[in-house]
Amino acid sequence: MGLSTHVLDTMNGVPAAGMQVALYTTQDGVVTLVRRITLNQDGRNPDGLLYDNASLKAGTYRLVFEVAPYFRARGVALPDPPFLDQVSLDFGIADVQAHYHVPLLVSPWSYSTYRGS
Prior knowledge:
Elements: E1 2-9, E2 14-15, E3 20-27, E4 30-38, E5 59-66, H1 67-73, E6 86-93, E7 99-106, E8 111-113
Parallel strand pairs: 1-7
Antiparallel strand pairs: 1-2, 3-4, 3-5, 5-6, 7-8
């Protein structure tokens, strides 16, 4: 099933279209950029999965969401420095046959995540 993400802008009640997201592997303390994406109109990767089942490996990963640039682009006046600039989520994948969905619910002042389906 692979790895996917989805971001919802809870301030405006919409998907976070246009938000920049980076995916990294974090194996053995070494952080390696895998890819950068721009979320589509549904707040998802326009190419679908970040990793498909065949490519997904057990280990640790990091998703970095560019929160402040997204809200500034929407015209939200943020303090300098912003309360949330980037949101980094570190997570582990143990079962490469399972689907790991990492959603983010975010505003300029808070965020929440969970393992989705």
